[in-house]
Amino acid sequence: MPLRPTRSAATEHVVGAMNGWMMAIIDFALLVAAAFMASRMAEFALPLQAAAGLLAFAGLFMLGGYFTLQPNQARVLMLLGAYKGTVRSSGFHWANPLYSRTRGTAAQKDATPREGTPRNRLNSGRGGGGMGFQWLTTKLSLRARNFSSDALKVNDKRGNPVEIAAVVVWRVENTAQAVFDVEDYTSYVEIQSESAIRSIASRYAYDQGEDHETTLRGGADEVALALKEELQIRLAKAGVIVEEARLTHLAYAPEIAPAMLRRQQAEAIIAARKIIVQNAVGMVHMALDELDQKNVVKLDDERKAAMVSNLLVVLCGNSDASPVINTGTLYT
């Protein structure tokens, strides 16, 4: 049964953030004013002293609102659990310091940081292993990413165990879905990609399918397109766009690889023999026609059969033929 796209509970809306440089000037002015008033604390009345304290507090509070975004990066703004919008413009920005910097944690079996993943992890296991947790930030990358799966052992359409792996090129399109509709969109992409690869492998035979049937080995483009379509349906819930999906490894499982290799060799030998016999028959027919047209020799049906047999042995044999010279007449 084909998969159907699921509806999303989150809708992204892009908002702007205040210029960080302008807010830095205001912040600096507040801190300078608070420092000036504090240096002359004895000259000011109590209300002005309180104002100096408020200015200092405001300047220090504003320090927590600065953030930067590189091209193809975005930040999801959340205030006390409520979604306030997504900032997509690159540069130096300032926003309400109360906006969350993280969006919770995700459980991870292996707490060892992997290549290409953030290093801000909390490991609750011991000795670097066991169950750990990964902080999920509100800053997301919108750049294209590669996910290369491990070699998975799957049964193809005929039930033969095969090893298959694929590479998936994907990127985040809807930041709200990526943050709020799934727990960890990176882990979601990896798990769903492996599940889609297994599903695709079970739909097709490895090779030698029926007439005009697409196979894993012979229909690389068709299989890649089917894999991409299924991945897009699965990953749409996470706001992810699949740019490309293609098989990178395809082989029989080790336990049946020798038998399948012998079968492939036998099929190759049969195909080659078929071509050799077809060409040999054509050459024999041409030889008989030439002899008859040029009146080189007259052969009855019995001698023609013997000649055809000898020529086929010479043309189709694996080793060189040893000619036998007949010094007598044609019929002795």
Q: What attributes characterize this protein structure?
A:
single chain, 332 residues, alpha+beta, Tetrahydropterin Synthase, Chain A, four-stranded antiparallel β-sheet, three-stranded antiparallel β-sheet, 13 strands, 39% helix
Topology (elements, then pairings):
Layout lengths: L17 E2 H20 L6 H17 L3 E4 L3 E7 L2 E6 L3 E4 L7 E7 L12 E2 L9 E6 L1 E3 L3 E4 L3 E4 L5 E12 L2 H6 L4 H19 L16 H16 L4 E13 L4 H37 L7 H16 L16
Antiparallel strand pairs: 1-5, 2-5, 3-4, 3-9, 6-8, 7-8, 10-12, 11-12, 12-13
Helix pairs in contact: 1-2, 4-5, 6-7
Outline of the structure:
The protein is 39% helix and 22% strand. It is α+β, with helices and mostly antiparallel strands and 332 residues long.
What does this entry look like structurally?
Mean pLDDT is 77; it is low at 111-129. The relative contact order is 0.09. The radius of gyration is 38 Å and the shape is rod-shaped. The protein folds into four domains: 18-101, no CATH class; 102-137, no CATH class; 144-255, Band 7 domain (Tetrahydropterin Synthase, Chain A, 2-Layer Sandwich), CATH 3.30.479.30; 258-316, no CATH class. The protein has helices at residues 20-39, 46-62, 175-180, 185-203, 220-235, 257-293, 301-316; strands at 18-19, 66-69, 73-79, 82-87, 91-94, 102-108, 121-122, 132-137, 139-141, 145-148, 152-155, 161-172, 240-252. The longest helix is centred in the last third of the chain and has 37 residues, at 257-293. With 332 residues, it is an alpha+beta fold. Strands 10, 11, 12 and 13 form a four-stranded antiparallel sheet that branches. A hairpin with a 2-residue loop joins strand 3 and strand 4 (82-87).
